[in-house]
Amino acid sequence: MSISTKQEAFAAVPDAEGRFGEYGGKFVSETLMSALAELEQLYRELSSDPGFQRELDADLTHYVGRPSPLYEATRWSDTIGGARIFLKREDLNHTGAHKVNNTIGQALLAKHMGKKRVIAETGAGQHGVATATIAARLGLQCQVFMGEEDIHRQALNVYRMKLLGAEVISVTSGSRTLKDAMNEAMRDWVTNVDDTFYIIGTVAGPHPYPLLVRDFQCVIGREARAQSLAQAGRLPDALVACVGGGSNAIGLFHPFLGDEAVAMYGVEAGGHGLSTSEHAAPLNAGTPGVLHGNRTYLMQDSDGQIMHTHSISAGLDYPGVGPEHAWLKDVGRVKYVVANDDEALRAFHTLTRIEGIMPALESSHALAYAEKLAAKMSPQQMIVVNLSGRGDKDIHTVAQLDGIEF
Amino acid sequence: MSRIAGHFRKLAEERRTALIPYVVAGDPGQAYTVPLMHRLVENGADILELGVPFSDPMAEGPVIQLAHERALANGTSLSAALAMVREFRATDTTTPVLLMGYANPVMRMGYAAFADAAAAAGLDALLTVDIPPEEVEGINSELQRVAMDNIFLVAPTTPEERIARIAGRASGFIYYVSLKGVTGAGHLDTAEVANRVDAIRRHSPLPVAVGFGIKDAASARAVAQAADGVVVGSALVHAMAETIENGGEPTAAIEAAAALLGDIRKGIDSAR
């Protein structure tokens, strides 16, 4: 496929059917089709409504604390001895990750639709916490679906959600992780579609979710672009972000897609390595298929069954990926690479010790790749890494790997 | 087209409501599915609906989810399900069989390869829960090539103009999902079902079968008064699972499902 490099060409997807090339779409049961059509229409109206944008911007400024800083990690850059590395500090957002940019947007949509109840799926618990937070603030009833395995791995976030007034529902079907939580959230939505808004946490799911989550997360890239120009007097040479479902990555990348000279790297979870079956890297090692309402690259076997995945970070432990990433891979605009568990863990420790910033294990995958990339570049060049979340939630996991019990 | 249209015509002449049991291919074991299919026909099934197990069955309630998990654990694949249809056809050439499943296994096999294999096996129709009319073009042309029906769902949330659109693409019969929810849920409103079936009939001459939430002779009888066909799934799957949990052999599980279907058959027939 030949594509124009103009920003408008990238803004032209998805099409009216929600397709990014051959990816995306609306692969859901008939019961949900009307709810999706209603959401699509409301979003079309509100996204061009200045009043809605003001409401959203006010929350992003005064509640989330935006804009998030673009911080130059000089000591880390010097240690590597290559390109200058800047960190987009989404870890400083209220609730500690980029997830809240999206939950605020969707919760406002729920409010405009008159829905009294919101549901969400969560893996690491960050999206669940961000949803429970905005539900508390808007007075909405909130239920969060979470795999039984993840509930054990992320006990702190489970308790945070409960403190915020949300009910956490343990999902015991399938592999008992994020994908199964999403199945269960869809089952709840199909049952309670009249009064419930499903706040999806990433750029996956059926149309219009990949579109609206992208739009809500694009604040990251818009800010980073303006901050790069203001602070460095130029655009970055490269952007790096981790990709599970891919919402923080698309949020950073999308406003730069038309900037031909800006290279982009999406970093998938390499787990124990691509040569093993223990990873979560569908763009690197998967094949196209349909899961959770959209067509995209999946970790699947030869019979079309979805495979179990592995990553040290629960937030990347997902067998699919947002359909726009599938398309960006095929058209060659973004390069998708991997960082393994051990590389991510090393980057976690490095950034903590050298910059005094404790990154989430998800974001540590992006840092690990950025370190390798920077080393091959010159000090005149510049990289922006999306530091999508903070690492407090992962202290337990890291401590366990170090053999420490609390 | 497939056996389905003719079969419904025959049933209409006999003033008989079609009874359509749903079981999952490979549950409780791959060797038991074909014997189960025959026993269901002997106990009053008019059309058989065979579920293709999938790792992420988003439309299913807990009973059928577990059946999918059991079938996957013993290695039941889409190809294995088609092999069961072929084996069934060796001794039953008249009862229509439809596969119900999810998009991904069919897509993975390839629409054209699936259509060829399914036609060779003697399958009559396919119902994919997560391929709505918006996404159906690719597979519909392949199914039409081998004269196989594509069964569409209409839901309680489907507006009338959309029913018309679905009717334009459907063949065989139209499957009305009787409630907002997953399979096996328990809040069936039979008066509302009758209204919605009437709405479908305004847009399509095809027979209308109703499924989701029908669990016994009484609920089947109530639905049969409005519909051309009644689908029963979770209740049968549960009857089999319960038998095995209580230490019964798979053959006893088959008999439990067959007996329950027989009761439901009597319930439906008493409605006419």
Describe this structure in words.
The complex is a heterodimer of chains A (406) and B (272). By secondary structure, chain A is α/β, with parallel strands linked by helices. Chain A has two domains: 27-60 and 99-205, Rossmann fold (3-Layer(aba) Sandwich), CATH 3.40.50.1100; 67-96 and 214-401, 3-Layer(aba) Sandwich (Rossmann fold), CATH 3.40.50.1100. Chain A has 17 helices and 14 strands. In chain A, the strands form three sheets. Chain A has a six-stranded mixed beta sheet, with helices on both faces. In chain A, a hairpin with a 1-residue loop joins strand 11 and strand 12. The mean pLDDT of chain A is 95. Chain B is of the alpha/beta class and 272 residues long. Chain B has a single domain (3-269), classed as Aldolase class I (TIM Barrel), CATH 3.20.20.70. Helices cover 50% and strands 14% of the residues of chain B. Chain B has helices at residues 3-13, 33-42, 62-73, 78-89, 103-109, 111-121, 137-145, 160-169, 190-203, 217-224, 234-245, 250-269, and strands spanning 18-24, 48-51, 97-101, 125-128, 149-150, 152-154, 174-177, 208-211, 229-232. In chain B, helix 10 links the parallel strand 8 (208-211) and strand 9 (229-232). In chain B, helix 2 packs across helix 4, helix 2 packs parallel to helix 12 and helix 5 crosses helix 6. At the A-B interface, strand 2, helix 2, helix 9 and strand 11 of A face helix 3, helix 5 and strand 6 of B.
